[in-house]
Amino acid sequence: MKRSELFFTFILLPIDFAMIMLAFVVAYKFRLSFEFVPAIYFQPFNEYLKFALMVSPVWLLVFALTGLYTRDERKTVAHEFGRIIVAVSAAIALTIALIFLSRTYFFSRLIIVYSAVAAVITVTLGRNLIRYIQRWLYHYDIGVRRVIVLGHNSSTKFIITEIKENRRLGYKFVKAIDHDGIDKIESIVKNNPCDEIIVSDANLDQRKVAKVLEFCQLNGIGFKMTPNLFLVSSSHVDVQQLAGVPVMEFKRTPLDGWGRILKRVMDIIVSLILIIIFSPIMLVIALLVKLTSKGPVFYRPVRVGLEKNFIMFKFRSMKVDAEKEHEAYIKKYGNMFKLKDDPRVTSFGKILRKTSLDELPQFFNVLKGDMSLIGPRPPMPEEVEKYTNWQKRRLGVKPGITGLWQVSGRSNLSFDEWVRLDAYYIEHWSMWLDLQIFFKTIWVVLFRRGAY
Hints:
By secondary structure, this protein is of the alpha/beta class. The chain folds into 3 domains: 3-138, no CATH class; 145-232, Rossmann fold; 258-446, no CATH class. Helix content is 51%, strand content 11%. It contains 15 helices and 12 strands. A hairpin with a 4-residue loop joins strand 8 and strand 9 (309-311). Helix 2 runs antiparallel to helix 5 and helix 9 (258-292) packs antiparallel against helix 12 (362-368). The longest helix is centred in the middle third of the chain and has 35 residues, at 258-292.
């Protein structure tokens, strides 16, 4: 780790401490200023401050245990925010336990809630300030990691372009060498000092790669390598032992086992709440669909689910028998097409599609168990018949009302881009990812980006 990286990692401790103390002070002042619930006794500020100073080291310990001080280049702002919420929740639980066990006469239990909310905000702001300063220094080549890229294939070009164009990564491109340069690696590095070597060609001879790795280890240089296709076929690898021999299990998705159970429980709870909230709106829409065009209120197409086909519910936005023309449209525009000016859509149907209100009845599909709130878009059977093996990866989990495709361009994406996003979702699923997609969907729908 470079000195600058060590400095910015270390400085998080005093910054977090200051932000935790600030949160306690803000919570105290807020509780006194806005007395929504009367307090019987107000503890003097000095006594309260002593308590905050006593529990703050406990908070820092919790932050460390939840990984907030580990250096992770993949950690995004959203990922760190999720960890902060988890860490603050755990710290607050410990604080409540300390109050109870020490029998401290605390003047207001409500202040604990205020402290938690304030801490999430202040700690996030403090860390974002440090991140901003660090990235600002990258523009002046302060704290950057000098990189030599070893390889001569398409991946090499992409990696070099990303390093040059994305200064936020903290990298500075030094030199690119091919496999012939491995035998001269010592002199190359001597003339082109670097902090890290990235091997971008997974098909290089293993003995030569081992030579580069050994050189890096002996000279304190970082070493990274792009894996081959087999190793990236799954992002979740579990190493077990069989007869004393290490065996790697490549897991398809975290949505197996408890992940699947947790997601189903959340689907039931949230879909029930949303059905209750939107039921008056759905009644009005049903009436307007009936009054503005001939045909049934609901459109009930067959869709491909996780293990079987199912009937999906939508408010009808097209003319009756519009589906008969779908096969011809697939031949003309390809799988998963969407047209800006589809002649089959009714006048009221255009409003429903623009606002995504036509999809409200799918909450019943979620409640029934055919769909999930978040997941790949459910395809038609005739579309699946034309899938390649690679495209069939998107069928590995329950389809959803919304997904990564929804918050990443919606109708503006190509089908291959949809599949890539769906494959990423399946391999990297988490409740935090679902939560992000859910709130981003609200933003996308409100501003009608990419919807038609």
